[in-house]
Amino acid sequence: MPKIIRINMSDLSVRTEETPAEWAGLGGRALTSTIVAAEVPPTCHALGPSNKLVFAPGLLSGTAAGNAGRMSAGAKSPLTGTIKESNAGGTCGRMLGRLDIKAIIIEGQPKAADTWYRIGISGESVVIEPETETVGMNNFAVLESVARRYGEDKGVITLGSAGENLMLISNISTRDPEGKLRSFGRGGLGAVMGSKKIKFITIDQEGTRPVALVDPAAFKAANMVFSKALKDHPVSGQGLPTYGTAVLVNILHEIGGLPTRNFTSGQCDHHDMISGEHMYETIVARGGEPTHGCSLGCIIQCSQVYNDKDGKYLTSGFEYETIWAYGADCLINNLDLIAECDNVMDDLGVDSIETPVMFGVAMEAGLLKFGDGTEVLRMLREEIGKATPLGRILGGGTAMVGKTYGVARVPVVKGQAIPAYDPRSVKGIGVTYATTTQGADHTAGYAVATNVLNVGGKVDPLSNVGQVELSRNLQIATAAIDSTGLCLFIAFPALDIAECLPAAVDMLNARFGTKLTMDDVVGLGKTVLKLEHEFNLKAGIGPEQDRLPEFFELEAIAPHNVKWDMDQKELETFWNF
Amino acid sequence: MQITIKLFANFRENRFKEARRDYPSGTTIGDVATGLEIEHGLIGMIFVHGRAAELDRELQDGDVLALFPLLGGG
After folding, report:
1. Which chain B positions have a beta carbon within 8 Å of A448's beta carbon?
2. pLDDT tens digits along A494-549
3. Do A256 and B50 touch (CB under 8 A)?
4. A122-150 in b/e burial notation, b at 16+ Cβ within 10 A?
5. How does strand A412-413 pair with strand A416-417?
6. According to the model, what pLDDT value does residue A113 have?
7. What value does the mean pLDDT of chain A take?
8. What's the pLDDT score for residue A112?
9. pLDDT score for A1
């Protein structure tokens, strides 16, 4: 029987509960959002005792399903004020699946302001103990301390100094199979964990067992079809493993959708120096790994290990959004400097989208010069890392810096930074930014696929026609995928190869003995979106906030000379389902 | 007529990043791809001046043509 672990930080108590029947068919985002919506008062302060931090592996976590290594974290976001789900790879989701733990709910808040805690979870017990050694440490040092004290094989969920300092740009990090970091990146969830005074959580894989499958033969057969689709599709089988997500730099530059110099142009002159093609050549020349997974069982392997010019590890999981934001939005034309920024951000535990987009606004404010990567590194280490007064302003994120310095061009929706696709030239993704329950988030409904990449059909990126429907369908499908533990990149084969998604549904049925259809899975996605939306409405975040910042309507962007001109009434039809 | 051709990802292997070449009028994008020995079925995205185009489109003097295999990310 799957368990719910409920940890109360107010009285340092632990309860192990049976999973209620209505949560039995949920996992990942569906479960974190259901629990947050049911148990967190929408109007609470996100850093107060009423907020809860929920971790949930997906429905397929711990099985042999390909690319099922994602785990969700949920809470009310201190950055956006909305409900938040953020998911990451790493080793914990698989372990929780194999411990038959459905969710970890962390609630309350210790009274003593100066005591930090660690939590240790195993198949037998949950311990909460005061923690001193790692307090003030950043993530890589925490991982070393945990490995020395508790062994190399633990799953780890950790906070860097930014989370300890309750910064809105802070993330929650988790150990990957190689002992590096993956992140529950967006929405300031690190601050929520920090507000509960938890420095790290370990998960012990002793006592884990193979996940019981109702029909192992059917599961194996479905997984073969599913894995074959992932290998056969050119995006998941060739493009991503070779070039990583940074292959998008040249594509977005070419179509004029690469936001540059704080969203004032759609093209960047030095695009080739920050491109996936250039990164691939650099990695190979320096003996790094262009093809690498963020979790066990990953078939796509979009990650990579990027070495410095002396062949020493510099960073891994070096993503398009990070490279775009520093490379084009902040105009830093040096991939090595960007890789170093990525590594420092991993160590501090800050969101690698929110942070560089914030720097773009700080550059516009004149705090530092566009292109000055050395000063970015100094500010990361010396200001944000040491929580100086300036570091706290920067650590408040893009909207905070814009307000503090009187900048009008602030690319955020619901307080969260807009990622790497300009909504004026990729209008479908603009609908997603405006309407998603999460604050600006490209992954919530990746219309770039159909607007630009010709995956899942074609919808003209410069026309408003069909974009609301496209974004809605993608957001529903994404909410369902985020509930399974499957990586969102399975959507590329799923949108083009007919057998792919039915095979995933067959795996769910073989795992649980259910008779779910594709319609049921779509229904799950709709239910998740609606309950998230309801939470936001009750939190006071209504349709007037389902919009893009005004500057997108006022300023045309090169090269296509286009503005954001989607009718607000049409945008509001998004929720008609 | 002069056409600027930009190639990306593995289309660059044994070819080039960017080249300006002379073509007779009436040349289509498909003709250019064939001349470069790029299998049409492997082409995922075609842009002319940053706008999506199809293989049967006739190019004009001064066009900038970008050819990508099918790629994704996010």
Report:
1. 74
2. 999 999 999 999 999 999 999 999 999 999 999 999 999 999 999 999 999 999 99
3. yes
4. bbeebebeebeebbebbbbebbebbeeee
5. antiparallel
6. 82
7. 97
8. 85
9. 81
Q: Which residue of B has its CA nearest to A303?
A: B73
Instruction: Confirm whether the ipTM is greater than 0.95.
Output: yes
Cα separation, B15 vs B38, whole angstroms: 10
What is the rounded CA–CA span in Å between residue A98 and residue A155? 12
Q: From residue A448, give the alpha-carbon distance in Å to each of A136, A297, A332, A422, A532.
A: 40, 27, 24, 10, 23
Measured between beta carbons, the chain A residues lying within 8 angstroms of B47 are: 254-255
d(CA A58, CA A117): 26
Distance from CA of A245 to the nearest CA of B (A): 4
Q: What is the mean pLDDT of residues A228-250?
A: 95
Q: Which of A245, A460, A560 sits opposite B73 (nearest CB)?
A: A245
Mind listing the pLDDT tens digit for each residue in A87-144? 999 999 999 999 999 999 999 999 988 899 999 999 889 999 999 999 999 999 999 9
Using the beta-carbon criterion (under 8 Å), do B50 and A560 form an inter-chain contact?
yes
Of A277, A452, A462, the CB nearest to B9: A277
DSSP characters over A175-230: E-TTS-EEEE-SSSHHHHHHHTTEEEEEE--TT--PPP-S-HHHHHHHHHHHHHHH
Strands A116-121 and A198-203: parallel
3-state SS class at A500: helix
CB A452 within 8 A of CB A433: no
The mean pLDDT of A442-471, rounded to a whole number, is: 97
Angstroms from A297 CA to nearest CA on chain B: 19
Nearest CA in chain A to B64: A254
B60 near A CB under 8 A: no
C-alpha to C-alpha distance for A402 and A106, rounded to whole angstroms = 33
User: For an interface test with A, which of B11, B49, B54, B71 has the most A Cβ atoms less than 10 Å from its Cβ?
Assistant: B71
**What is this structure's pTM?**
0.97
